Structures are given as structure tokens and as C-alpha cells.
């Protein structure tokens, strides 16, 4: 990033005063561990349009006007839904075949770690983000984005200093090219208004050789033709099948696209750039 350019900052600090020597030693060790996990994102380059938006730099809101309006119209943008998401709604994913947050985070860490800078796209209230940020030795810094301000508010409360959560549209990311070592998205791609654009942006912001892991929902049973279903498909509905998602990722430049886990409607796909 050029000198004087606006930066997004987040620091974690632990202060120990007036403690016995043994306690101070423990605090120093804890501080060192926290520092290694703290989201040092002040060196993440932004796109020109993001740099030119003061609100983005000061408030961590990188959405353009159309994305903000879309968020307000979506049920995901409601504070009540964001509050209820991880307290009940997310648990219903088990019926679709999702293995649960712990297993999802473990799979993501296995595929993506170790990596320096991780982007968690469509993070929701930060349920998986928190586990990835705290996974020992996995990621140096974690940045989470969601286009719902209500979801990001929940995520910030959950994540504290372990990760940075920002409002952003996955199809119009504010980050410059090739700034992330790994990208992840759990249960998000089928909700995107334009999945292809979302995959384009994840690919653009991933460094060459970087790793991606995306979990999403596909139809349990298919009827009719894939072409007809895909043409009529709307956001927040399953994709045709896992092969359709793989082809979508390959079409934007991802390589070594492979299904790593599938159960009922749940599918997890890894890839590299």
C-alpha cells in the first residue's frame, strides 16, 4: 500500500500492571499468542473506489448504495434474523446434511491452513469465522465480510479482536487483487444474487497458488433439465448439483476443483488459483 493511503486497522492488546512476576510472565505469553492471532489487516490494499470512500475506511462499510438497499430488502438484513441465525436457524442446516460448525471449521482448517491472510466471505454472524480465527497455527489474520450490516454487527460482537468483520458485497469486493492467501465461504454461495460474480471476486483477490474452500447447497434430487432449472433459479435456493458448482468455479479460473465432502444437500468444494 502506498504511503499515506487510508488503512483498515484492528489491534489486540493485553495490559498487565501490578501483577506478581509469575502472573506477568503468563500475561506476556498470552499477549504474544494473542498478537499472533490478532487481525493485522492494516496492510491489506483496497481498490480505488474503496479508498475513495471515507465511510469505508472509518466504519468498515464497503458496500455501494445498491448493495445496501438490497441488504435492507433481504431477510438476512433484519436484526431479528441475524440474532436468531446461530441461535436456531443455523441448526436446521443439519437436516440438509451440514456437519455442524465444528466439523465445518475443522474441514476448512485442514484444507486451507496454514495460511497468512484468510478471507471469510458471507460470514453471517461469524459462527465459523470465530473457530477459524482461533484455530491454533492456522491463520495469521482473518477478515470476514457479509453484505448484511445486522450480520456483521453480530459477528463483531462474537469475534472481538480475533478477526475483523466488515460490510461488503462478495460480488464487488473492496480488496485489491491477490491480497489473500486463502478464501472461505460457508453456506453462502447459493444466497448470492450473482454466484459467478462472487466466484470471480474470490478468484481475483486470491493470490496465485492460494487455496479456496466453498460449502453450499445443491438439490437432493433433480428433475427436468439442468439448463431450465439454472435459468429460473433464484438466490437462496440450491444449485443443480455439485458438478454445476465445480463448473462455475472452473469457468472463472479456479484449478484443481474437487469435492471434498458431500452429504444430502451439503457439498464442500476446494480449489486453487
Please describe what this structure looks like.
By secondary structure, this protein is of the alpha/beta class. It has a single domain, classed as Rossmann fold. It is 39% helix and 20% strand. The chain has helices at 21-37, 48-51, 54-59, 65-73, 79-89, 101-112, 127-134, 149-159, 195-205, 226-232, 242-251; strands at 115-121, 139-146, 164-167, 180-186, 206-217, 255-263, 266-272. It has a 7-stranded mixed beta sheet with strand order 3-2-1-4-5-7-6, with helices on both faces. Strand 6 (255-263) and strand 7 form a beta hairpin. The longest helix is centred in the N-terminal third of the chain and has 17 residues, at 21-37. It is globular and about 50 Å long. The relative contact order is 0.13. The model is unreliable at 1-38 (pLDDT under 50).
Describe the structure in brief.
InterPro entries: Methyltransf_11, SAM-dependent_MTases_sf. By secondary structure, this protein is α/β, with parallel strands linked by helices.
SSE topology:
Layout: H1 21-37, H2 48-51, H3 54-59, H4 65-73, H5 79-89, H6 101-112, E1 115-121, H7 127-134, E2 139-146, H8 149-159, E3 164-167, E4 180-186, H9 195-205, E5 206-217, H10 226-232, H11 242-251, E6 255-263, E7 266-272
Parallel strand pairs: 1-2, 1-4, 2-3, 4-5
Antiparallel strand pairs: 5-7, 6-7
Beta content comes to: 15-25%
How many domains, as an integer? Answer: 1
Radius of gyration (Å): 19 Å
Q: How many angstroms does the end-to-end distance come to?
A: 23 Å
CATH architecture: 3-Layer(aba) Sandwich
Give the rounded overall mean pLDDT: 82
Low-confidence blocks of residues: 1-38
Strand order of the largest sheet: 3-2-1-4-5-7-6
The strand count comes to 7
Biggest sheet, open or closed, and with what strands and sense?
Answer: 7 strands, mixed
GO molecular function, one term: S-adenosylmethionine-dependent methyltransferase activity
Domain Methyltransferase type: 119-213
Keywords: Methyltransferase, Transferase
Protein name: Methyltransferase type 11
Amino acid at each position: 500500500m502506498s504511503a499515506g493511503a487510508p488503512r483498515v486497522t484492528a489491534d489486540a492488546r493485553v495490559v498487565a500492571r501490578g501483577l506478581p512476576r509469575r502472573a506477568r510472565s503468563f500475561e506476556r505469553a498470552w499477549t504474544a499468542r494473542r498478537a499472533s492471532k490478532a487481525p493485522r489487516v492494516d496492510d491489506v490494499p483496497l481498490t480505488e473506489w474503496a479508498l475513495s470512500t471515507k465511510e469505508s475506511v472509518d466504519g468498515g462499510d464497503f458496500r455501494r448504495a445498491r448493495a445496501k438497499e438490497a441488504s435492507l430488502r433481504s431477510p438476512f438484513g433484519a436484526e431479528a434474523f441475524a440474532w436468531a441465525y446461530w441461535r436456531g436457524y443455523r441448526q436446521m442446516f443439519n437436516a440438509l446434511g451440514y456437519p455442524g460448525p465444528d466439523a465445518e471449521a475443522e474441514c476448512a482448517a485442514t484444507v486451507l491452513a496454514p495460511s497468512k491472510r484468510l478471507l471469510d466471505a458471507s460470514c453471517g454472524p461469524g459462527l465459523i469465522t470465530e473457530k477459524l480465527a482461533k484455530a491454533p497455527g492456522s491463520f495469521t489474520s482473518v477478515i470476514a465480510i457479509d453484505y448484511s450490516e445486522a450480520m456483521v454487527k453480530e459477528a463483531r460482537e462474537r469475534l472481538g479482536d480475533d478477526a475483523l468483520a466488515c460490510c461488503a458485497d462478495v460480488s464487488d469486493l473492496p480488496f485489491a487483487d491477490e491480497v489473500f492467501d486463502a478464501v472461505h465461504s460457508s453456506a453462502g454461495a447459493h444466497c448470492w444474487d450473482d454466484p459467478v460474480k462472487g466466484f470471480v471476486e474470490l478468484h481475483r483477490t486470491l493470490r496465485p497458488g492460494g487455496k479456496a474452500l466453498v460449502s453450499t447447497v445443491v438439490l437432493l434430487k433433480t428433475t427436468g433439465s439442468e439448463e431450465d432449472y439454472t435459468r429460473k433459479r433464484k438466490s437462496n435456493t440450491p444449485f443443480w448439483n455439485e458438478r454445476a458448482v465445480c463448473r462455475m468455479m472452473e469457468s472463472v479460473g479456479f484449478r484443481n476443483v474437487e469435492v471434498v465432502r458431500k452429504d444430502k444437500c451439503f457439498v464442500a468444494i476446494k480449489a486453487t488459483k
